[in-house]
Automatic annotation (TrEMBL):
<protein>
    <submittedName>
        <fullName>Uncharacterized protein</fullName>
    </submittedName>
</protein>
């Protein structure tokens, strides 16, 4: 049986055996082993950070040698420039949530700075210790930074319709604030003002804002000779998320709008 440095659970395996014994041509043998990790993580060894842009976020876990000896962290590296790691030996007994820390234990803390980029990333934290069994090992980590203000859908697809209204001729984009507080849309920049325009449905400060995007009045399929890949840049009064970009595809028919969106990066993204 192969085990990993951080494995701390029961492992069960089975072996199918074929024999020449009469009445017992096959039998199954089951083996159960209690695996105890040389270094125990509390509450667990899942290093996951989920946050919103503009916020410094910390994840702290307690490390302890299973043999009762004092633990020393000789080195700790993540290989990620946006993630800081720190260790702090426990000097006196303290209780946190449902477990107790004492001298010989070590606090391990991951710090995701407030200026971390939006997106999801994974990696491995490399540790070296004074434990004779777990001299060095890796701990997987994952982090996700969400935009303070997000928009749905990802982009808009528009095309002229005979009725000049409804699905295709216009569409809506909803902006949601993930953090506390409210925001207001202060203005727009449109890539093709002669083709489409944008307007705020509600101008009051709120956690959710909606804009309506509409094709120019009188625009018909004949006016669009080729598919247009444009954008709307939305300005807000939020200092962290001051601008958002929404891709807009306009074509002469619905079928011709079906292509991937290409996001235009702007300040604050």
């Amino acid at each position: 049986m192969r085990t990993a440095p951080l494995q701390d659970r029961r492992i069960t395996k089975s072996i199918a055996v074929r024999t020449d014994a009469k009445g017992l041509p096959t039998l199954n043998l089951r083996f159960s082993v209690e695996v105890r990790a040389p270094i125990v993580f509390k509450p667990d060894n899942r290093l996951v950070i989920s946050t919103i842009e503009g916020q410094e976020t910390r994840k702290r876990v307690l490390l302890r040698r299973a043999d009762g000896e004092a633990l020393e962290i000789l080195s700790a590296e993540t290989g990620d420039q946006t993630l800081r790691v720190a260790t702090e030996p426990v000097v006196k007994k303290e209780r946190t949530n449902e477990y107790e820390a004492g001298p010989g234990d070590v606090w391990l803390e991951l710090v995701l700075p407030a200026d971390s980029p939006i997106g999801s990333r994974t990696g491995k934290l490399r540790l070296s210790t004074n434990d004779p069994i777990a001299k060095s090992f890796e701990v997987p980590f994952a982090m996700r930074v969400r935009a303070l203000i997000e928009h749905r859908p990802e982009g808009l697809r528009l095309w002229p319709t005979p009725s000049r209204s409804g699905d295709g001729y216009s569409g809506f984009v909803t902006l949601n604030r993930n953090g506390k507080g409210f925001f207001t849309i202060t203005g727009f920049d449109v890539s093709h003002p002669e083709i489409f325009s944008a307007a705020v449905v509600s101008a009051e400060a709120a956690k959710r804002q909606t804009i309506r995007v509409e094709l120019a009045e009188g625009l018909g399929p004949e006016a669009i000779s080729s598919t247009i890949e444009g954008w709307i840049e939305i300005r807000t009064d939020d200092p962290i998320r001051s601008k958002l970009n929404v891709p807009v595809i306009v074509a002469s028919s619905r079928e011709k709008t079906r292509r991937p969106f290409q996001t235009r990066r702007t300040v604050g993204e």
